[in-house]
């Protein structure tokens, strides 16, 4: 049995991220799907569960059972008139057929609710953004090649804060680390039996994210240079272990946000001026810990993200609409200066 070492914390040092103009509550509700058919017979989907939205001040998705109430026209089971008997057989045939069709219709609509792109829903109703969980994350790796190199440290922080809102661990790449001069992580620090391999870590990581996720909502992961570095590394790590990135995980890159913020101030942004550490210095955010260590960078990122959303006046709904999924990662590129 392998004993691995990871760190969960409340991350009380960093205040909760106050994203500009956050949405508050859901304003529309999905109705229970129901249908009726003729011959005084009413049918609903058997033993099915659909998502509905509870009312009140703390609205959330819940599952409710949809029961069946089917009644026939004649319960006596006997009929002396052959014409009536034929009509009753026809009634039962129509009722059964209608029930089967309802199963198909309601199941199809339920699947649409389950698999619809959350970005489209939020574009139509900004208030749905209240169910989005925002998690800042950062990775340190053995190099810049997303195909050949591996993650050696990962840190995440739920920007809502609270108990166990932060997660950080080294990762055993089962190979030498040749770029220790960048992040200070050496081969001896990670190639140890008590440091989890990625295949050991993924189930724990999924449980951590699930514990922070709001019922019925999605997760927006925020990273600096996410599209060309952190997210591709994360996707490849999952792929090597035969695990898919969950479909309700969205990703937001703060590097373009930094570029836009610099332009809004009349500056001409360069790759160096929009690195995470350059933005930290420009915005007057103090460094907490060593630069290029995952948790230290997450703390900086949380503060930078908060400032950028305020400067650009970006509501959470806009951030989600502009986010990307793991399947939308483009052609490999090198990571720019951080």
TrEMBL record:
<keyword id="KW-0540">Nuclease</keyword>
<dbReference type="InterPro" id="IPR013520">
    <property type="entry name" value="Ribonucl_H"/>
</dbReference>
<keyword id="KW-0378">Hydrolase</keyword>
<dbReference type="GO" id="GO:0046872">
    <property type="term" value="F:metal ion binding"/>
</dbReference>
<dbReference type="GO" id="GO:0008296">
    <property type="term" value="F:3'-5'-DNA exonuclease activity"/>
</dbReference>
<keyword id="KW-0479">Metal-binding</keyword>
<dbReference type="InterPro" id="IPR012337">
    <property type="entry name" value="RNaseH-like_sf"/>
</dbReference>
<feature type="domain" description="Exonuclease">
    <location>
        <begin position="133"/>
        <end position="314"/>
    </location>
</feature>
<comment type="similarity">
    <text>Belongs to the exonuclease superfamily. TREX family.</text>
</comment>
<keyword id="KW-0460">Magnesium</keyword>
<dbReference type="InterPro" id="IPR036397">
    <property type="entry name" value="RNaseH_sf"/>
</dbReference>
<dbReference type="GO" id="GO:0006308">
    <property type="term" value="P:DNA catabolic process"/>
</dbReference>
<dbReference type="Pfam" id="PF00929">
    <property type="entry name" value="RNase_T"/>
</dbReference>
<dbReference type="InterPro" id="IPR040393">
    <property type="entry name" value="TREX1/2"/>
</dbReference>
<dbReference type="GO" id="GO:0003676">
    <property type="term" value="F:nucleic acid binding"/>
</dbReference>
<dbReference type="GO" id="GO:0005737">
    <property type="term" value="C:cytoplasm"/>
</dbReference>
<protein>
    <submittedName>
        <fullName>PREDICTED: exonuclease</fullName>
    </submittedName>
</protein>
<keyword id="KW-0269">Exonuclease</keyword>
């Amino acid at each position: 049995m392998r004993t691995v070492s990871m760190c969960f914390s409340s991350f009380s040092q960093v205040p909760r991220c106050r994203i500009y103009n956050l949405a508050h509550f859901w304003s529309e509700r999905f109705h229970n799907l129901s249908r009726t058919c003729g011959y005084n017979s009413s049918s609903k989907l058997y033993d099915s569960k659909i998502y509905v939205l509870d009312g009140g001040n703390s609205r959330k998705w819940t599952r409710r059972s949809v029961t069946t109430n089917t009644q026939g026209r004649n319960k006596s089971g006997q009929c002396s008139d052959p014409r009536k008997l034929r009509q009753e057989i026809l009634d039962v045939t129509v009722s059964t057929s209608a029930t089967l069709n309802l199963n198909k219709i309601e199941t199809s609509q339920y699947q649409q609710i389950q698999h619809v792109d959350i970005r489209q829903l939020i574009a139509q109703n900004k208030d749905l953004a209240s169910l989005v969980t925002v998690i800042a994350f950062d990775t340190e790796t053995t190099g810049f090649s997303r195909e050949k190199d591996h993650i050696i440290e990962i840190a995440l922080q739920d920007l809502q804060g609270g108990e166990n809102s932060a997660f950080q661990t080294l990762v055993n790449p089962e190979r030498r680390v040749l770029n220790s001069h960048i992040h200070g992580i050496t081969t001896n620090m990670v190639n140890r039996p008590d440091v989890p391999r990625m295949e050991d870590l993924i189930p724990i990581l999924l449980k951590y994210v699930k514990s922070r996720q709001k019922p019925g909502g999605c997760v927006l992961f925020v990273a600096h240079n996410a599209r060309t570095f952190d997210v591709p590394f994360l996707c490849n790590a999952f792929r090597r272990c035969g695990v898919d990135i969950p479909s309700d995980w969205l990703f937001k890159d703060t590097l373009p946000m930094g570029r836009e913020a610099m332009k809004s101030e009349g500056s001409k942004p360069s790759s160096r001026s929009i690195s995470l550490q350059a933005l930290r210095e420009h915005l007057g955010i103090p460094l907490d810990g060593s630069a290029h260590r995952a948790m230290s960078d997450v703390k900086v990122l949380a503060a930078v993200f908060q400032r950028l959303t305020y400067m650009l006046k970006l509501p959470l709904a806009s951030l989600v609409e502009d986010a990307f999924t793991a399947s939308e990662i483009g052609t490999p590129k090198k990571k720019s200066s951080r």
